[in-house]
Amino acid sequence: MSDGFRGGIFDVDGVLVDSPHEQAWRDSLQELMEGPWSDIASQTSWSPDAFTSEVYHQRMSGKPRTAGATAALEYFGVPDVERRVTEYGEHKQEMIIRLISEGKFSAYDDAVRFVLEVKAAGIPVASASSSKNAGLFLSRVTLDRFNEGGRYDFVREGMTLKDVFDVDVSGRDFAQGKPHPEIFLTAASELGVEPGDAFVVEDAVNGVQAAKAGKMGALGVARADDVDALSAEGADLVVTSLDTVDVARLGAHELVTRS
Question: Do residues 142 and 240 share a domain?
């Protein structure tokens, strides 16, 4: 382990962008239950009100598409999960692309600022999301308004958040999904750093679990009133805004807030 962190690894959905994944999962299941699957709806515990944010964050957030679909269908007791999971996943994907195209998502400004400050501190950065849509999100977040006065010499006019990352392992088909650390270990390897010299920024419990399983620093950002849940999984620091993280102390291998 070196004196300071030498790599920063960022999840995308819920960390960098307020994505419509939760809406897409919820709405696409409702369309199926009220349409092609209406004959089995009464056999399940599903209802529009039952698909809460808590269900999404605890059961689905951060998982690859098939795993997320499976988790939801099993939670609601949908019969013939193996036969239905592909249809659900594909229906959700069609909806998410439509929502992205309509611009129904936004970047978290605190996260964009934090990525830029980490990179400005000389720490290479990687994006590591299970979502195959991560690159599409990042490519639609322009940086001009974050670089007023030319604050960052590495940001060019018209540059997007996707362009900032030194490594992008998002959307790859890994053998193991989170909470297995494979995606984060791959990101660290491609950044050229040892796992212990990298920190991971995550908003989901299974993402924090993956970071700790990989022996990495875990910085939890609580976007869903889940400070306690992230802390319980061993996150080294949990914040509600990444603006509060002391970037200078990353050079001392510390995840702390500014005093």
Answer: yes
166 and 196, same domain (yes or no):
yes
Specify whether 67 is located in the same domain as 113. no
Locate tokens 């620091």: which residue? Answer: 237
Residue 259 lies in a domain: no
Total structural domains within the chain: 2
pLDDT greater than 60 at residue 1 = no
**Domain carrying residue 76:** 21-101
CB atoms within 10 A of CB 149: 5
Written as six digits, the tokens of 18 are 């307020």
Both structure tokens of 252: 């001392």
Residue 26: the pLDDT is: 97
pLDDT tens, 7-56? 999 999 999 999 888 999 999 999 999 999 999 999 999 999 999 998 99
Helix ranges (DSSP H) in 129-255: 134-139, 161-164, 182-191, 205-213, 227-232
Residue 153, class by beta-carbon neighbours within 10 Å (0-12 exposed, 13-18 middle, 19+ buried)? exposed
Considering the domain architecture, whether residues 151 and 233 belong to the same structural domain is answered as yes
Query: CA angle 50-55-57, nearest 5°?
Result: 150
pLDDT score of 3: 83
* Mean pLDDT, rounded, for 172-189: 95
- Would the CA dihedral through 107, 20, 221, 235 be positive or negative? negative
Q: Are residues 74 and 111 in the same domain?
A: no
What does the pLDDT average to over 186-206? 97
Domain contains 2? no
